[in-house]
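Morning!

This is the sequence you dropped in the shared folder:
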Amino acid sequence: MKTTLLTIIFTSLFVGSSFAQTPRKATNAYRNEGYKLVWSDEFSKDGRPDARKWSYEKGFERNHEAQYYQRENCWCEDGMLIFEARKERRVSFEYNPTPTWWDQKALYADYTSASINTRGKFTFTYGRLEVRAKIPVSKGAWPAIWLLGTANPWPHCGEIDVMEYYHIKGEPHILANAAWGGRKAGDAVWDDIKIPFSYFTALDKDWADKFHIWRMDWDSTSIRIYVDDILLNEIPAWKSINLGGKSEGVNPFSREHFILLNLALGGDNGGPIDDSALPLRYEVDYVRVYQQK
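The structure's back. Tokens below.
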């Protein structure tokens, strides 16, 4: 059953705003719940993200976004993974004078950023994902923590958005979503929650300046998405069944998924970009995956 905003508000009264500022130790967290740490990155070594764990996306990728993804905009520093979105001109290697797709139309990109993922390096089915991060909240910013399945083309592979932030009709929101396949190829069925950012700043006026803990609990019965232990969305397994295609009748969330972290700008959902706020930084303290024994 999906949580209502009133339930979220009630729950939040019992969560101290300082909680998210104190990270748990990866080796000890959730032991009393029967969980074991199976994969993590603490970003403790300065330089590029660990190539054994992460791959980069390159160029224009999706959603008609304005940024051009490149590895130069992502690095580890002082125990943090940094994504930096910049206003800078970059020649697009995807340019085609007779374009077939939207991402081939531009000779230049006016913005750059970064996107990394664990595709082909780490996947998992069921467990607890925990990410401690501080997100940018300027207009046009679209940071995300999400997962994609490996079994089928999108959306029949399944998509879980543990965290998205962007402006909707000029107002900032935090989102917690899942999508699966509709009756036609490329047709997605969404279960999404859009919470006005003003709700969080009412709890703590300095919310945007702090780190917060996003968590996903995923098992054979449901997907539950939290921030700072506040339940944002719950997607029951009986609901998330592909409706068509070769995977008709299959729940994509019973299959392996990989992790993605990115900072997008503009596009279909990001909206107009506030150039005066650039460069933007999205900082990630750690990414941890736990599974029950």
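Headline: The chain has one domain: 5-292.

More detail when I'm at my desk.
O.
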